[in-house]
Predict the 3D structure of the following.
Amino acid sequence: MNPKAMMQLKPMMEEFRDRHPRFVEFFSYAGQSISEDALIEIGITDAEGRKIITNMRVEPEDLELFALMRSMLG
């Protein structure tokens, strides 16, 4: 990611936290439970009520990426 994009991301993340504090709290808490072989599932229900759901099993190689993402959001 280029430095300019990183600079734009910070205020956007702060605004997102202000608008959706419970969402951010959930990911902060849930992020502590991510370990190898954990199952992450995410779903979206669109305005018409259609659901899209997927999941992934956490691999050892994924843990470093999740740690980096937590440090960026923290």
Summary: The chain is about 55% helix and 20% strand. The longest strand covers residues 39-45. Strands lie at 39-45, 51-57. The first helix runs from residue 3 to 19.
